[in-house]
Amino acid sequence: MRLLFIRFSAIGDIVLASPALRCAKQQIPGVEIHFLTKKSMKAVSEANPYVDRFHYFDKDLSATIQELKACKFDYIIDLHKNLRTLRIRLALGVPYLSYNKLSVEKFLLTKFQVNRMADRHISMRSVDTLAPLGVSYDGKGLDYFVPSEVIQPVFFPEGYVALVIGASYATKKLPLESLKVLCSQIPHPIVLVGGKEEVADGEALALLDPTRIVNTCGAYSLHESALIVSKARLVISHDTGMLYIACAFEKNVIAIWGATSPALQVEPFMPDDLKAQVFQSIVPDLTCQPCSNFGTKTCPKGHFSCMKQQDLPEIARQVEQMW
User: Fold this and answer.
1) What residues contact residue 302 under an 8 Å CB cut-off, 6+ apart?
2) In Å, how far from its chain's centre is CA 175?
3) What pLDDT does residue 9 have?
4) Which of 167, 156, 152, 148 is nearest to 11 (CA)?
5) Which residues contact 162 (CB under 8 A, 6 or more apart)?
6) Alpha-carbon torsion 228, 234, 239, 245, what sign?
7) pLDDT in the model for residue 3
8) String of b and e for 25-46 (b: at least 16 CB within 10 Å)?
9) pTM of this prediction exceeds 0.85
10) Could you write out the three-class secondary structure of the chain?
11) Which residues form a coiled coil (predicted)?
12) CA-CA 20 to 30 A from 245: which of 42, 49, 116, 140?
């Protein structure tokens, strides 16, 4: 049997879909797994041993479709479910299975705070997609694989907190002043993780205590940053891809929620038998949260209470407990 899995983006969503790939490969005898994603997302899954062949979409969907037609798939497993994947399904004309995206439920929750969400994590729903093929969840959590040639960056051999300061949208990130307060309340070494967009904020935070705080934002690849997270004593992260990579490495995690929330069924996802600690920092009793599936550039209400009212001393206390 030859299966085409589709998940175009983003980093976190691809990591959250990883149990479906693993369970399919391990539970369907002789299966051949193909995976289609955006070319820009290549690094996220390129070392996944459960995938037999990768396909990458860049700008020409017609060319991608022609490439896929030659593979003669038995099923398409649509874990993205948008207009592009519909076009691919129609063009290939083979049976397909698509995951329960809960689009209507998410709309009701983010626009009207009416919670009709199924009590089923997105990773579990991805595996549920494969139920007609006899596949079930194995309890082993998320996967993230780093190519063997990637060199491990080394910081603070005695241990450190990995603080992921980035996120795809502003409403999912603590303001810089809050991050400064949080860093000042954590007495342990801190390694700041983020992309090029966070370089300036990382530099400002590192200046608070250059001997204790190291800024790696924009200086390392995704895989190298993942290895930094993998060696941390614990990880503090906004709702971003590195949060789920930390879960794949089975780290103690503190998730800080702003415009999004665990109610969207995207909370940290760990193996069933794991004893790692998870703390979800969320401002209680906000009637406007979550306000978005993915985050926004500015707070729709203008007050940004979901981040500005975060209990920073409690986060610091959780750091001490996990340390």
Assistant:
1) none
2) 21
3) 95
4) 167
5) 190, 191, 193, 228, 229, 232, 234, 235, 236, 237, 246, 251
6) positive
7) 98
8) beebeebbbbbbbbeebebbbb
9) yes
10) CEEEEECCCCHHHHHHCHHHHHHHHHHCCCCEEEEEEEHHHHHHHCCCCCCCEEEEECCCHHHHHHHHHCCCCCEEEECCCCHHHHHHHHHHCCCEEECCCCHHHHHHHHHHCCCCCCCCCHHHHHHHCCHHHCCCCCCCCCCCCCCCCCCCCCCCCCCCEEEECCCCCHHHCCCHHHHHHHHHHCCCCEEEECCHHHHHHHHHHHCCCCCCEEECCCCCCHHHHHHHHHCCCEEEEECCHHHHHHHHCCCCEEEECCCCCHHHCCCCCCCCCCCCCEEEECCCCCCCCCCCCCCCCCCCCCCCHHHHCCCHHHHHHHHHHHC
11) none
12) 116
Cβ(246)–Cβ(162) below 8 Å: yes
Alpha-carbon distance of 10 to 119, in angstroms, equals: 23
Q: What is the pLDDT of residue 251?
A: 97
286 contacts 303 by C-beta, under 8 angstroms: no
**Residues recorded for the chain:** 323
Mean pLDDT in consecutive groups of 10 residues from the start of the chain, 323 residues: 97 98 98 98 98 96 97 98 97 97 96 95 98 98 98 96 96 98 98 97 98 98 98 98 98 98 96 91 96 95 97 98 96
Residue 32, strand partner residues = 2
Report residue 8 as tokens. Answer: 């175009």
